[in-house]
């Protein structure tokens, strides 16, 4: 987060929406080039939460705008990491704004939970997760994929994701693309292009703080980085009461 703020200081311009009754003059003077999405009173007396588009992490600012705090805010009485709660809520809100028609969905026959996974074809652990897809579905976990070609928008992963999203049958195309990328078996999916959400999903992943793939988002907005076997994931989800 500190890196974001110091980088932002060298940029220009700032727009804001939904600003609460907090003095942002010093913030605006110091932190430029970021977009304020929401400002609201914090549970911590005298502090306000400022949410910017470029990161899911909240910034805490005093009402007079003089003091700014970053990092974890913990309620020691309740034993709750308030920052983590805010981040999860933010991620959940952003994921819920994505239309399912822009996802690749493998629905569990007896659905009990839903996960949203940022994935790409040139990621070994993404391919491992996908190769065990039937195990997740058997556990009652529906898997919804969003594209995150983490190597960038000029990578093979990006081209694969675009071809998958532009195909007539995304599920079959993703299966084929993963199989080919893993062991060069079968045929490479035909290259296709169309009006697609891959670049937008890539940008969304960056905004949410995704740093690698697979990135598993649970229904409460909490993020699990990396591959997790189906049965272990089921236990983690149930421990959260989801």
TrEMBL record:
Keywords: Disulfide bond, Periplasm, Redox-active center, Signal. CDD domains: DsbA_DsbC_DsbG (cd03020). GO terms for cellular component: periplasmic space. Residues 1-20 form the signal peptide. It comes from the Bacteria. Gene3D superfamilies: Disulphide bond isomerase, DsbC/G, N-terminal, Glutaredoxin. Belongs to the thioredoxin family. DsbC subfamily. Required for disulfide bond formation in some periplasmic proteins. Acts by transferring its disulfide bond to other proteins and is reduced in the process. PANTHER family: THIOL:DISULFIDE INTERCHANGE PROTEIN DSBC, THIOL:DISULFIDE INTERCHANGE PROTEIN DSBC-RELATED. This is Thiol:disulfide interchange protein. It comes from Ignatzschineria ureiclastica.
């Amino acid at each position: 987060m500190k890196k974001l703020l110091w980088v932002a200081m060298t940029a220009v311009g700032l727009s804001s929406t939904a600003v609460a009754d907090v003095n942002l003059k010093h913030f605006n003077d110091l932190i430029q080039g970021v977009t304020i999405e929401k400002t609201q009173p914090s549970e911590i007396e005298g502090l306000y939460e400022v949410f910017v588009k470029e990161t899911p992490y909240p910034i805490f600012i005093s009402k007079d705008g003089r003091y700014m705090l970053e990092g974890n805010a913990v309620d020691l009485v309740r034993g709750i990491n308030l920052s983590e709660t805010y981040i999860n809520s933010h991620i959940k809100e952003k994921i819920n704004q994505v239309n399912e028609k822009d996802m690749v969905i493998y629905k569990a026959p007896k659905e009990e939970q839903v996960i949203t996974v940022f994935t790409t074809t040139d990621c070994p652990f993404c391919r491992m997760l996908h190769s065990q897809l039937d195990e997740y579905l058997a556990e009652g976990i529906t898997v919804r994929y969003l594209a995150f070609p983490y190597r960038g928008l000029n990578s093979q992963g990006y081209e694969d994701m675009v071809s998958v999203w532009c195909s007539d049958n995304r599920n079959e195309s993703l299966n084929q693309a993963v199989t080919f990328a893993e062991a060069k078996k079968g045929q490479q999916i035909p290259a296709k292009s169309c009006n697609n959400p891959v670049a937008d999903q890539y940008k969304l992943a960056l905004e949410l703080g995704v740093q690698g793939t697979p990135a598993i988002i649970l229904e409460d907005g909490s993020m699990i980085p990396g591959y997790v076997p189906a049965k272990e994931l089921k236990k983690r989800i149930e421990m959260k009461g989801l």
